[in-house]
TrEMBL record:
Source organism, top-level taxon: Bacteria
Pfam families from the UniProt entry: Pribosyltran (PF00156)
Protein name according to UniProt: Phosphoribosyltransferase family protein
Source organism per UniProt: Sphingobacterium corticis
UniProt cross-references to SUPFAM superfamilies, sorted A to Z: PRTase-like (SSF53271)
Gene3D superfamilies tied to this protein: 3.40.50.2020
InterPro entries reported for this sequence: PRTase-like, PRTase_dom, PyrR_bifunctional
Length: 172
């Protein structure tokens, strides 16, 4: 990665965009009792944890279930695991959460875990959508759509995961 990084979102902007995503999720699922957030390890799970807290503040009457998916992103076939029984998501709204959507491969692998699970609906939420989709995967909820060139990299840093002083997203 190059040494030069350009700040694209600071801590306050990340919080504002996360809050907006949380409100959109509630608006789109107003009649639902249960919403399942499935965070893709590592930073997608951190983002899902934050969304869970915001959703519980906005709509305390809803049951916000949090799951964690671990995916081997380097393999060309689906190699993933989930931290609880996948059938806990049956007949519920599932929102697959990641920090950055680039090619769509990671989200496609995440969706693959739920292919044989009867769901009410499945949506995706990302903090940053880079719009370089190689797969027919799109963000239903996003904080920022960003046009970049392929050689650029988007890096999201969360205080609790990366040990940094403040949340930030950079273009490198």
């Amino acid at each position: 990665m190059s040494a030069k990084k350009t700040l694209i979102l600071n801590k306050e902007q990340i919080h504002q965009k996360s809050k907006r995503i949380a409100y959109q999720i509630i608006e789109d699922n107003f009649d639902e009792k249960d919403i399942v957030l499935v965070g893709i390890a590592e930073r997608g799970y951190v983002f899902a944890q934050r969304l869970q807290v915001m959703l519980q503040e906005i709509a305390p009457d809803k049951n916000i279930i949090l799951m964690r998916i671990t995916i081997d992103k380097l393999k060309r076939q689906l190699d993933a695991s989930i931290d609880q029984n996948i059938h806990n998501a049956e007949e519920k709204v599932v929102i697959l959460v990641d920090d950055v959507l680039n090619s769509g491969r990671t989200l496609a692998y995440g969706l693959g875990l739920f292919i044989n699970v009867p769901l009410k609906k499945m949506r995706t939420a990302v903090l940053i959508d880079r719009s370089h989709h190689s797969f027919p995967i799109f963000s239903d909820y996003y904080g920022l759509k960003l046009s970049t060139i392929l050689k650029e990299h988007v890096e999201v840093e969360f205080e609790e995961h990366d040990g940094v002083a403040s949340d930030a997203a950079y273009l490198a």
